[in-house]
Amino acid sequence: MKQSEIIGLSTAELQEKLSQLKKTYAELRTAHAISPIQNPLQIKFVRRSVARLATELSKREL
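RESULT FIELD:
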């Protein structure tokens, strides 16, 4: 998810998207621990998206 897309979302949408991505990240890590997944870079992209969303939420709180 790009930063320009994140800025356009409302706070409620950010929180919802963040919870979805956190769940996806946990599922990817579990699946990768059991057996290697097709695209391990997907884990990196989801982790970075989670960080971007969390950063934007903290910016809006200030």
